[in-house]
């Protein structure tokens, strides 16, 4: 996670220094960009997803999560509320992969479960911006989302005893983030960093209530970090 924040900081620094956005009297680009009632755009980015586990009993052996980087892509529809507030709908596609390490097993085939997920996300957000300063404008954003996990395997008849880790298809949660709008000569470029937190339990437990994989899990929820690059 530290690497993500470092990369984001270096990106912001590169953008600001290379385009001289912070000059005292810059030439203002796209002066009417934020005055339209409706705006459209798209975003690209990457993510790092994790799991948060709640256990029924504290046995001193947690499930390990090996995280990796995934990617995000989506569209943006924005409705202007006033000078400082906008409502945004950001439907998108997200891919991520995680490896789970379960304690107490002697073989890798039993101990490791690879969880590949493809989510179709539907976030509804509020974006709160400061007053524009030259060709840049900081903002914070937050809201709720619903998503469908196409790789959930929720309806599979197999479970971990057959090597199949199952999750629920529908997920609900919220996200919070911040970023900066940069007004270039031809478009508005907005890098942002988001924290994503599921509210619903995503685990489909094994058929055996005493399963060594899921028997001690009370709830499992996704959490993650996004870095998005928006073009409007």
Automatic annotation (TrEMBL):
Name this polypeptide is given: Outer membrane beta-barrel protein
Alphabetized InterPro entries for the sequence: Beta-barrel_OMP_2
Keyword Ribosomal protein applies: no
Keyword tags: Signal
Residues spanning the signal sequence: 1-20
Keyword 4Fe-4S on entry: no
Pfam families according to UniProt: OMP_b-brl_2
Domain Outer membrane protein beta-barrel as annotated: residue spans: 31-202
């Amino acid at each position: 996670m530290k690497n993500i924040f470092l990369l984001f900081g270096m990106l912001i620094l590169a953008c600001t220094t290379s385009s001289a956005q912070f000059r005292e009297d810059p030439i203002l680009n796209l002066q009417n960009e934020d005055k339209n009632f409706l705006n459209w755009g798209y975003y690209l980015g990457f993510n790092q997803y994790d799991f948060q586990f709640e256990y029924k009993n504290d046995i001193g052996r947690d499930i390990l999560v090996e995280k990796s980087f995934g990617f995000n892509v989506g569209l943006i529809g924005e409705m202007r509320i006033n000078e400082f507030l906008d409502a945004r709908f950001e439907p998108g596609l997200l891919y991520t992969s995680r490896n789970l390490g379960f304690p107490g097993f002697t073989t890798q085939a039993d101990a490791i479960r690879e969880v590949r997920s493809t989510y179709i996300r539907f976030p509804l957000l509020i974006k709160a911006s400061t007053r524009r300063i030259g060709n840049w404008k900081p903002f914070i954003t937050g809201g709720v989302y619903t998503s469908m996990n196409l790789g959930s395997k929720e309806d599979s008849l197999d479970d971990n005893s057959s090597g199949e880790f199952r999750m629920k298809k529908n997920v609900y949660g919220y996200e919070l983030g911040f970023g900066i709008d940069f007004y270039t000569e031809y478009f508005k470029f907005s890098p942002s960093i988001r924290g994503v937190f599921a509210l619903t339990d995503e685990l489909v437990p094994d058929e055996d209530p005493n399963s060594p994989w899921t028997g001690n899990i009370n709830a499992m929820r996704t959490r993650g970090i996004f870095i998005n690059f928006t073009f409007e």
